[in-house]
Amino acid sequence: MKDQSEIDHNRHQLVSAQKHGPLATLGVYVRLSGPGWLQSAITLGGGSLAGALFLGALGGTHLLWLQLVAITMGVIMLSAISYVTLSTGQRPFPAIAQHINPVLAWGWLIATMMANMIWCMPQFSLCYASLNENLVGSAMSDSFANKLWVSAVLLVVCYGVVHMSLKGGLGRKLFDLVLKALVGMIVICFFGVVVLLVSQGTMQWQSILSGFVPDLTAMFRPIGKLAELVGHLSPSHAEFWSARIVKEQRAVMIGAAATAVGINMTFLLPYSMLTRGWDKPFRGLARFDLATGMAIPYLIVTSCVVIASAATFHGQELDDKLASSQPDVMVSSPMFKSVEKSLAARISHEVGSEAYANLSRDQQLAAMATLDTTEKQIALTLVQRDAFQLSKSLSPLLGEKLASIIFGLGAFGMGVSTIIILMLINGYALCEAFDHPQGTQPTFTIGCLLAGVSGASWPQVWDGPSKLWLAILASSFCMLLLPIAYITFMMMMNSRSLLKEEKPVGASMWIWNILMAASVLGAIAAATTVLIDKSSDPTAGTVVLAVTAGFIVAVLIGFAVRLGKQR
User: Fold this and answer.
1) Is pLDDT at 221 greater than 70 in this prediction?
2) Most CB contacts within 10 A, which of 166, 174, 415, 472?
3) Per-residue pLDDT tens digits for 24-67
C-alpha cells in the first residue's frame, strides 16, 4: 500500500483538477495513471504476439477488427469492476461471495491462479526462445539443462522486481522504463514497417482501414486471398479446404480474442487500484487509464503485427521446390515438413483414410506432388508459424541482422513483463484466498513463487506430454469463467445491496447495461464456440464437458444456498 500522505496528496490534486476543467484533469490523469499499464504488460505477451501473427497469415487485414472488438469488450467490463471497487472500497472477492455467489467468487479466484501458473510457462519459453533464436544464438546450447538454468535466473530476477514493486523506489521505476522502452521499440519498428509497406504499394491504407469493419462471416467462410484461392478449385476440393480453413480461422479468432482480456486480468485491476489507495474520486482516472494504458498500446501493437504478418505470409507464394510435381524435388523444400500434414489430409480425404494408409511412402509423396499449386499454396498459408519468423517482416526496414535483434529484445521484454505481472496477480490471489491483507508475508511470496516456479518448469512440463492436458484444462475452465466473470460484474453493477446510492440509475444505468450485455454476449459466444470445438475432440471432450457441467451445477447450488440464507 502506498504511503497515506501520498494517497491523500494524489486525491487532493485529482479533486482540485476536476474543478478546474478537462485540461487540468487530463494532466493529473496522465501523471497518476498506472494500473492500466499493468494490464498492458500482461496482455502484450507471447499469446497476443502469436495470435496476431496467425490472424494476419490467415485473414490478411480482414481480421483487424477482431482485436478492436475484443479490447473494447474488455475495457467495458474492466471499467465496470473498477467502478464497483472504487465506489464501495470493498475487495471484489468477498463482495462477490457475500452479494452474488460464493461459488462464483471461488471459481474466479481458482481460475485466476490456474491461468497464472499455466500461462506463465509459455512466457518463460518465449524469453528463452528470444535469447536462443534472436539475441545469443549459437553461443547458447539448446539443452534441457541450459533451459532450466536460464529459467532459474529469470525467476530470480522477476521475483526481485515483484518484491521491489511492493516497496516502490527508483529501481522499480527504472525497470518499468526499460520494459516500456523494449516494447515501445518493437511497436515503433512494426509501425515503421507498415508505413514502408504502404509507401511501396504492398499495402493500401484503404484495405487496412476497411479491415477494422467487423465481419462475422469469417467464422463460417474463408476470407481474403484464401477465399480467392478456394474459388479456383473444383467443388469437392473447395469443400475440403474451406472446412479446414474455417476451422483454423475460428480457432485463431477465439484464441486472439482471448489474449486481449483474460480471467486473471479481471482479478489484477481492482486489487492494483486498491493497493494504490484509489477510491471514488479516481473512477474517471480508472477509465482513462484503461483506455490509454491498456487499450491503445494493445491495439497499436497487435494491428501492426497483423498488417506485417499479412504482407509477409498471407497467400504466400510457393518456392519452386514445393511447387514441383516431382516428389524428390518437393520434399527438398524447407517448407515441406510444415505443409505435409495438410497435404496428406487432402489425399486421405479423396481416397479414404484406409486406402491412404495402405499406400507406400513413395506413393503418398507422389500423390502430394501432383496436387494443384493452388492447394499447396493454401496449405502453406495454414502453417502455424513460429512467432520469431515474424522478425523477417522487419528486414525491409532494418536489415536481417538488426531486425532479428530488435525483435528479440521486444519479445524478451514482453515475456519478462508478463511473468512479473502473473507472479504479482498470484500473490494477490493467494492473500485473498487466506483473507490476508495484500502484500502479507510469507503468503504473498508463496503466491508469487507458485506462478514463477510453475513457469520456470516449462522445459519439463510445457514441452512434455502433459502440455496437452494442461492447455485443455486451463483453456476450458478459464474460457468458461470469463463470461461468468463478466456476468458477475454485470450483476454487481446492478446490485443495490452492494452499491447502495452509488448504483447507476436512469440513462446511466441503461448505457452501462447495454454495453455490458454486448460484452457478455460476445464472451458467451466465444466460450460456446470453444466448448463445442473441444467437446468434439475425443481426447479433450470428456474433460471439457465434465469441467463445464460440474461448475454449472456448483454455481446453481451456490445461488440456491444464498437464496435460502436470505429467507
Assistant:
1) yes
2) 415
3) 777 777 777 766 666 766 777 666 777 788 888 888 888 899 88
What's the mean pLDDT in 315-330?
A: 87
Average pLDDT over residues 340-347: 91
Cell of 538: 475425443
Task: Quote the cell numbers at residue 447.
Answer: 503466491
Q: Quick one: cell of 81?
A: 469492476
Q: How far is CA 468 from CA 461, 465, 472, 476, in A?
A: 10, 7, 6, 12
Q: How far is CA 437 from the centre of its chain?
A: 29
According to the model, what pLDDT value does residue 155 have? Answer: 94
C-alpha cell at position 431: 492473500
Give φ, ψ of 323 to 5 degrees. Answer: -75, -15
Only one residue has cell 486480468, namely 265
Burial 211-234 (b: 16+ CB within 10 A, else e): bbeeeeebeeebbbbbbebbeebe
pLDDT higher than 80, residue 491: yes
Split at pLDDT 50, 70, 90, the class of 73 is confident
**Cell 464472451 sits at which residue?**
523
Kindly report the pTM of this predicted structure: 0.80
> How many other C-beta atoms can be found within 10 angstroms of the C-beta atom of residue 553?
11
Cβ distance 96 to 105 under 8 Å?
A: yes
How much is the mean pLDDT over the chain?
A: 81
Average of per-residue pLDDT across 198-215: 82
- Cα–Cα distance for residue pair 358/382, rounded to 1 Å: 27
Q: Residues 82, 87, 89, 91: is their CA dihedral positive or negative? A: negative
- What does the angle CA 163 – CA 165 – CA 166 come to, to the nearest 5 degrees? 75
| Residue pair 260/65 in contact by the 8 Å Cβ criterion | no
Instruction: Tell me the HSE value of 231 on the side-chain side, using a 13 A CA sphere.
Output: 8
Give the residue-averaged pLDDT of 476-486.
Answer: 71
| Whether the bond into 442 is cis, omega within 30 of 0 | yes
Is residue 259 within 8 A of residue 45, CB to CB? The reply is yes
| CA–CA gap between residue 97 and residue 67 (Å, rounded) | 32
pLDDT at 247 over 80: yes
Distance, CA of 185 to CA of 180 (rounded, Å):
8
Contact 49, 259 (CB under 8 A): no
In contact, 192 and 184? CB cutoff 8 Å: no
